[in-house]
Backbone:
């Protein structure tokens, strides 16, 4: 009872820190949104800051861009349909059938996500552009006329997007299928229903809400996606909302208010979709998730399992192997053609890429930014996760909504808000890497939070409470119990944040300046202004740099763990 | 290895809970609970799930913030709604054993147990000695170096115990510590905890929904339902003299017999009821107030079956055996008496067959008047 005399009041320490960190997160997220909305209502001189007059003109003007909204919907619907079909098929194969090599395939399914839509778009442009695409070169070589495939059409763009978003859909749908209690199906079979009847009457209705939720989530992501539409659509002047916004902002003179109005509309739709998604996930009818870990019963599909294996392998080949090999092949050629010719091979592209000052600084800056984003982000998001899911402090629910908010805003739209917001910020960070750091920390809040929360929610609250009952103060508990238990989640979040920041495009492309270049926008710039082959080399160098950086970090971390400092 | 000498006796403390109310949003989990625990006493909060017993315990620990009331430990308020006082759990000088054990998987057994001592900045050699003492007490002396994640459920439970008492808290709280163990281990650990309590003499508050556990280890039992206390008493008071239907039913199995009072037949302070079927039942009132209609509780073990009419003057009735269920330690008979079913548990080896006519006997001392 020795300490009873002291600190009698309601504990101020963690509460104060929570208010500060929660408030900081709220400012990061909401501050740019305010400016986005403000810009969309500006009706005076488009360049004026702050706006000279307010009105709804920019919104009433939007019907002029009806075709762009139509394009966006067509691409998003087509891509969502394909991605969900892919995700459902792969989810069913990998979680409910006895396909050979299930475990390994499941690990490999993360790869499409790492290939990124930008690399995919670059590779598929090399493969499927109507004139010079490798596939079409082959087609003409065997006597075909015109082109076989064209990835610059809306459906081509949707196809490329779907290949990569398919792995996201797979993760979401696969989780639903796995979390289904197999006894629900067994009960149906015991009561005399056949396998088909069980599938139609029990399995499908049970997974349907989950699939619907995944579809809405994917659709929202597709509405806001940027890189594939930029790389494949811009040359043929095919615009979706995000690329149109980019065009309005980067043209001369820039049309900020109009772009802002587009961003606000897009954001409103996405926000509604994400809201519906969360409602579906949280509603009680979605009861296949019981929190128990089931070993889902794998269905014996007999000889069909080899066909299913083939399906999985083909998907991975098209989404991962083919794009990477294509880029590799193009990057060592003078002129990218499908048939190898000895005098066409060269390493000049790599030499050029590495000798370009712009590329070297951009790559270097990107790696540093990634390091900083991941390290600060893990601390910030770890604390936020603790606060939201653990602390029971008042307002935790509201903070969760704010922090998850960037999920509903395309990164490009967010960056647009920041562009204006930080322009008037008293500390001159505009046009510096600091602005990019702030942007990354903001747009990746949901990513980091979800990763850490996933681990945190598995840690029983009583593990922290028992430390408290042993007399440990908040800081001591954090250091000795909470942090060590969270380590796997923190490491995973760090890696994801690092990789995501180094390869970020949507936010970076608007926020880079002459003094702050990062690598992904540099690659896109090269795609539009220099050669395809050089761009392929740069994209591969970026991937290589990320891999080398991670390998180095791991080695250093392991050394440090083996020989802890005195 | 010679047993290390036990450290100086723990400072033990009393607990007072007054008018405690705990709310979760709109739900009132604890609605005005008042009780005291004397220094060194072992009190159990007993009740079905959702009765507020765990919430009460966690409020004492400081893990829940009550809406109103007062909690004092050793006379010092650790929670009070006016003036506002909320001493954080780590400053209350308590310790707790959790239902989930809450053993930290990233530490060894030794580190788990040593945690509270390290928090208190004890010197490492002294820590080593104290941890050894604690582990010996819970019979885990040899497992100190083992990773805590590689223990069986029973072993984890013992580590949790050792960790909780090693730093000699003033009060030890137990939140259903045995509910995750199998029945045999549970019975074993029950005895060990009782033995440990006796040896350490620490004030303890124990939460359980298991009657046997409560009866076995408590000095006093507090029976709770729907956030209020139904009865407080020693284990035998609770068992022999349940205050109302809920306690009679929850603490062991009881038959309830309702009837009209027959004051004309009452002698020697007995209470006599006439059932709707006309049977006359003599029972004990224990000074409880009684109306025209009243209710007796009769434990199933106190009902006796006999083939021959016994010599007793009162509480002997004919009955018919309807169903016999052999349960090992006892045989349960479902008999028809006075036009209604009754349950009687017998340990005799001489079984009565289903359909047999028997005599049903109960000592009036065992027919206990209930307050409802």
Residues:
């Amino acid at each position: 009872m020795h300490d009873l005399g002291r600190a009698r009041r309601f504990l101020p320490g963690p509460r104060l820190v929570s208010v500060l960190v929660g408030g900081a997160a709220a400012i990061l997220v909401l501050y740019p949104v305010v400016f986005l909305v403000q810009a969309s209502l500006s009706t005076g001189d488009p360049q004026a800051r702050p706006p000279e007059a307010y009105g709804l003109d920019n919104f009433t003007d939007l019907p002029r861009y009806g075709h762009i909204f139509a394009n966006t919907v067509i691409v998003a619907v087509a891509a969502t349909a394909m991605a969900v079909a892919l995700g459902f098929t792969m989810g069913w194969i990998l979680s409910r059938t006895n396909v050979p090599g299930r475990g390994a395939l499941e690990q490999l399914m993360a790869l499409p996500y790492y290939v990124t839509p930008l690399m995919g778009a670059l590779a598929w442009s090399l493969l499927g552009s109507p004139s010079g695409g490798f596939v079409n070169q082959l087609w003409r070589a065997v006597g075909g006329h015109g082109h076989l495939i064209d990835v610059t059409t809306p459906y081509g763009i949707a196809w490329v997007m779907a290949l990569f978003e398919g792995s996201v859909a797979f993760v979401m749908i696969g989780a639903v299928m796995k979390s289904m209690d197999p006894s629900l199906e067994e009960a149906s079979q015991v009561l005399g229903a056949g396998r088909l009847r069980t599938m139609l009457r029990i399995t499908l209705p049970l997974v349907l809400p989950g699939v619907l939720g995944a579809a809405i989530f994917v659709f929202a992501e597709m509405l806001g996606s940027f890189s594939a539409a930029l790389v494949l659509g811009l040359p043929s002047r095919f615009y979706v909302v995000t690329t149109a916004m980019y065009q309005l902002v980067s043209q001369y003179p820039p049309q900020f208010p109009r772009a802002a109005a587009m961003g606000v509309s897009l954001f409103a739709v996405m926000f509604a979709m994400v809201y519906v998604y969360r409602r579906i996930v949280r509603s009680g009818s979605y009861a296949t998730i019981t929190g128990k870990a089931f070993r889902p019963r794998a269905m014996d599909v007999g000889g069909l399992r080899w066909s299913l294996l083939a399906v999985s392998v083909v998907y991975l080949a098209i989404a991962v192997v083919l794009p990477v090999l294509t880029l590799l092949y193009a990057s060592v050629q003078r002129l990218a053609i499908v048939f190898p010719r000895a005098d066409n091979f060269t390493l000049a592209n790599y030499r050029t890429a590495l000798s370009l000052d712009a590329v070297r600084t951009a790559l270097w800056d990107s790696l540093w930014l990634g390091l900083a984003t991941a390290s600060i982000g893990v601390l910030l998001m770890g604390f936020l996760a603790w606060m939201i899911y653990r602390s029971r402090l008042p307002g935790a629910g509201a903070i969760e909504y704010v922090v998850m908010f960037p999920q509903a805003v395309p990164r490009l739209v967010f960056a647009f808000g920041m562009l204006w917001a930080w322009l008037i910020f008293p500390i001159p960070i505009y046009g510096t890497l600091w602005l990019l750091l702030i942007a990354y920390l903001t747009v990746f809040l949901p990513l980091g939070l979800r990763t850490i929360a996933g681990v945190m929610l598995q840690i029983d609250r009583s593990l922290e409470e028992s430390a408290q009952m042993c007399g440990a103060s908040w800081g001591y508990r954090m250091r000795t119990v909470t942090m060590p238990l969270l380590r796997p989640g923190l490491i995973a979040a760090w890696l994801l944040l690092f990789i995501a920041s180094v390869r970020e495009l949507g936010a970076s492309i608007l926020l880079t300046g002459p003094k702050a270049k990062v690598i992904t926008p540099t690659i896109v710039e090269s795609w539009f202004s220099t050669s395809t082959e050089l761009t392929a080399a740069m994209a591969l160098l970026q991937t290589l740099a990320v891999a080398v950086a991670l390998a180095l970090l791991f080695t250093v971390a392991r050394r440090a763990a083996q020989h802890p400092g005195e | 290895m010679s047993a290390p000498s036990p450290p100086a006796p723990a400072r033990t403390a009393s607990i007072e809970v007054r008018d405690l109310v705990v709310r979760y949003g709109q739900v009132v989990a604890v609605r005005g609970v008042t009780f005291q625990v004397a220094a060194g006493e072992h009190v159990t909060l007993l009740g079905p799930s959702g009765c507020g017993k765990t919430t009460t315990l966690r409020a004492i620990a400081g893990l829940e913030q009550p809406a109103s009331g007062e909690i004092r430990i050793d006379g010092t308020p650790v929670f009070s709604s006016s003036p506002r006082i909320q001493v954080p759990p780590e400053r209350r000088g308590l310790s707790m054993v959790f239902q989930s054990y809450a053993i930290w998987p990233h530490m060894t057994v030794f580190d788990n147990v040593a945690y509270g001592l390290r928090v208190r900045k004890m010197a490492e050699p002294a820590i080593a000695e104290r941890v050894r003492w604690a582990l010996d007490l819970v019979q885990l002396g040899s497992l100190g170096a083992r990773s805590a994640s590689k223990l069986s459920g029973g072993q984890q439970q013992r580590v949790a115990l050792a960790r909780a008492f090693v730093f000699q808290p003033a009060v030890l709280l137990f939140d259903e510590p045995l509910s995750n163990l199998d029945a045999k281990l549970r019975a074993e650990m029950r005895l060990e905890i009782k033995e440990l309590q006796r040896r350490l003499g620490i004030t303890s508050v124990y939460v359980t929904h298991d009657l046997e556990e409560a009866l076995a280890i408590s000095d006093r039992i507090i029976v709770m339902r729907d956030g209020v206390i139904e009865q407080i008493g020693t284990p035998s008071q609770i068992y022999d003299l349940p205050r109302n239907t809920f306690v009679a039913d929850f603490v062991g199995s009881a038959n309830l017999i309702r009837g009209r009072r027959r004051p004309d037949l009452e002698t020697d302070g007995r209470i006599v009821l006439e059932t709707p079927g006309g049977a006359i039942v003599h029972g004990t009132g224990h000074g409880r107030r009684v109306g025209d209609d009243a209710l007796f509780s009769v434990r199933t073990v106190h009902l006796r079956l006999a083939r021959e009419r016994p010599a007793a003057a009162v509480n002997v009735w004919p009955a018919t055996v309807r169903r016999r269920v052999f349960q090992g330690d006892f045989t349960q008979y479902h008999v028809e008496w006075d036009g209604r079913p009754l349950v009687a548990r017998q340990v005799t080896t001489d079984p009565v067959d289903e359909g047999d006519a028997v005599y049903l006997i109960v000592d009036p001392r065992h027919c206990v008047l209930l307050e409802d």
In short: The interface with chain A takes residues 11, 13, 61-63, 73-74, 76, 78, 84-96, 98-100, 102, 104-106, 115-116, 119-120, 160, 163-164, 167, 170, 173 of chain B (CB under 8 Å).
